[in-house]
Structure formats: C-alpha cells, structure tokens
Amino acid sequence: MLKFMKYKWVYAVASALILIPGIISLLRWGLTPSLDFTGGSIVELRFEKEITPQMLEEFATESGIEVVSVQKSADSTYLLKAKEFGKDKNEMLKQTLTTQFGQVEELRFESVGPIIGEELTRKTIVAAGVAVFAILLYVVFAFRKVKGEIKSWRFGVAAVIALLHDTVATMGIFSLLGHFFGIEVDLLFVTAVLTIMSFSVHDTIVVFDRLREVLKRAPGIAVEEAANLALTETMIRSVNNSLTIIFMLLALFLLGGTTIHWFIFALLIGTIFGTYSSPFIATPLLILLGKIPILKTKQR
C-alpha cells in the first residue's frame, strides 16, 4: 500500500502553482469572449487564388468593417470575425475581393446581436451553478449511509471543491491564452467546461466509492490509512481510463479541424486536471475537513 496521504501538502503546493497564475489572470484580464457572447458577424470565404489574412483584413477594413480576427480554416478558406455589420457591407467586401482575387465563394455569413450575447452569458452562469449544486446534492445523498467519522456532507464538499479546482484551472489557462495569444472562448468552451465538471466528479466518485468499501470492510481503520488503500486499489484503473481519453483527444487536437481545436484542448487539459484532482485534491480534502476543529465539534 502506497502512502499517498503522506504528501498531501505537496499536492496542495502543486495545485497552488497552477491555480494562482490563472486566478490572477482571470481577475485582471478575464476571459476573451467570442462573438457568441459579445455579438458580431462571422464570414467564411473560399478564394480561387491565394490570399493572406493580412490582405483580407485590409480589404475588410476598407469596406467599413471593424475586424476582430481573421483565421485560416482550410486551404484558401478564411474565417473573418468582426463587429456586427449588414449584408450591404458583406456584398461590398465580396465584390472588392472578387475584383482583386477572382471568384470568391461565401460559405457562411452569420450575425449574432449583443442581446443574444448577454442571454448566452447569463444562461452559461446559471447552467454551471445548477450543475454544481445538483452534483453536491447527489454526492451527499449517494454517500449518506457511510458509517464512522466521515459524514456524507464531507464527500459532497470535497467533490465540489475538486470540481471547482479543475474548472478554475482550465479557465485560468484560457484566460492566459486569451490575454497573450488572443484565444477566444465560445459556446464550445462552455460545453467543454460542463463536460470537465462531469468527468471530474465521475473519477472522484470512483475513489470515494472504494474508500467507502474499505471503511465497510475494516470498521476500525484510520481514515488516512483507508484513503491510502483506496487510492492504491483505484490508481491504475483511473490512470488507464484517463489515458485512453487523453490519447483520443490528442489525436483530435493534432489532426482535427480548427473549428474544434480549442474545444479539444480544453477537454484535454480538463481531463488531465480531473485525473489529478480526484486522488490528490478531493481525497486529501475529505481528510482535512475532518481535522478542522469547528467542523469536528459540529459533527459530535
């Protein structure tokens, strides 16, 4: 049996090194929102001749369009994101580009108003809050019959804190990427965050369930020793399970299209954090919550 809990403060320091820069970035710069949240227009164009992103941006600006970004999505295909503009300016841009570069095919033209952007932001926050609260209630209910000094609410609180650890770490990394490299967050990022939350709790419940079995098999065992035994029994299974997901996500990240590139990256780092937090954040927290004097008094 490996003494995992002997190094719980090392895990805390490692998490702090990841979380603190991300939290500072979130507080100072926040996330860089895409047009899904701010409102604006997206045009995807395919060109007959070669053109650079700089040239496309220059012609768009001359057409009176306030360009946010220009990305190459495929061979001779570009995705232009800008503050909201109408079809008249879009037609003007296409005519100018056709004159300069030959045939131009419009693959997509979409506009998202700022009211929709505000609504999406509000729904995102509400969805995340509901998910966290539901997970807390579920974990407390699932472990309500655990006997001994570990109360069911400690399982719920530890699982939610580990979940928040993974979520904040992922958001912190994207905040830094947004500030230094202009990476934007969109609805796919929201999907990734909610997926990360579910994966984090799933892995944590596996560890907690084994801990419950250990406590049931050996009623007099110390909680820390039971945690070491539970982690020893589940570690290989958790790592193997996560590696299969990580390998698949790596393949998609390296070979997938640009549209899902950062969505896959968010899932990838979230999976890594989720694999780490279940044994090294949630489990130590479960033990530490029982050592806080005020909480110990309330439990009695």
UniProtKB/TrEMBL annotation:
The chain crosses the membrane at residues 9-31, 124-143, 155-181, 187-208, 245-270, 276-295. It is a multi-pass membrane protein. The keyword Lipoprotein does not apply. One of its GO terms (molecular function) is protein-transporting ATPase activity. Pfam families: Sec_GG, SecD_SecF_C. Part of the Sec protein translocase complex. Interacts with the SecYEG preprotein conducting channel. SecDF uses the proton motive force (PMF) to complete protein translocation after the ATP-dependent function of SecA. This is Protein-export membrane protein SecF. It comes from candidate division WWE3 bacterium CG_4_8_14_3_um_filter_42_11. The gene is secF.
